Each structure stands twice: as structure tokens, then as C-alpha cells.
Amino acid sequence: MRLPLPGRHIAACLAVAALLSGCTEPNKSKSPPVASERGAQLFKERCAACHPDGGNVINPKKTLHGGVLADHGITTPAGIVARMRTPGPGMTRFDQGTIPDADARLIAEYILATFR
Length: 116
Ligand code: HEC
What we know:
Blueprint: H1 5-20, H2 37-46, H3 66-71, H4 77-85, H5 101-114
Helix pairs in contact: 2-5, 4-5
This protein binds heme C (HEC).
């Protein structure tokens, strides 16, 4: 079936959203994420052991650099938070009790603002 362009965009977006809930916040016409002190600190404490400088010591193909994340369908803070909640093989799972949503979001914004 051939959909008109906006329809195709929405369809693609919904497919990604189903996986990552990445469509809950349109990132158009929104200011880019900002790296906060707290986000940086939490990243250092929770993530940097495996992701030093936005790299990945366990799976070098899964770094946190913007272009790499985008290739893997992660373009928003929500997409990164989703990965913390439901990680892939080799990554620690961070649930709400470990890193509450507000902090998870600060970490995600720090990542998007810092690693390009
Ligand atoms: C024990 C090591 C480890 C820790 C700690 C860890 N990660 Fe990961 N991370 C991984 C591995 C291994 C992968 C590849 C598997 C996957 O895609 O989930 C990964 C993948 C990711 C990805 C997807 C990267 C891509 O290019 O697709 C994101 C986003 C991510 N981690 C964020 C985080 C955040 C945020 C934290 C801290 C809250 C964190 N990780 C802590 C090991 C870790």
C-alpha cells in the first residue's frame, strides 16, 4: 500500500514509537537537550564504567555518539530512558527504583548534548 508522505512518516514514527516510545516528544521546534551538572554526575556514577566518553567497552558498535544512536533509532531523551529501562545484552538494567524518571531524563539529556 502506498501512503501519502505524512502518512508514511506517521507510520514509520509509530513503528519506532512502539519500540522506544520515541514519539512521545516531538523534537522539532524544541530547544536541544542541555547537559546539566546533575546529569553529568549521574552519568559518571552509573554509565561511564561501560560508556567512557560516550563509548562502549562491551559492545563497541553500540556507542552513545549522536550519529550512532540515530542509526539505532534513538534520537530523543525518551529513547535513551527506554534503553535504561529495557537494555540489550550486556547492559545493566536501571529501573525506576534505581534511577527515577527525572534523573534518567537528566542523564539522557546529558548524553544527547555531550556526545556527538
Ligand atoms: C555493564 C555495562 C553497562 C552499563 C553500566 C551501562 N551500559 Fe548502556 N550499553 C551497554 C551495552 C553492552 C550496550 C549494548 C546493548 C544494548 O544495545 O542495550 C549498551 C547500549 C546502550 C545504549 C544504546 C546504544 C546504541 O548505540 O544503540 C544506550 C542509549 C545506553 N546503553 C545507555 C546507557 C545509560 C544511560 C547508562 C547509565 C544509566 C548505561 N547505558 C549503562 C553496557 C552498559
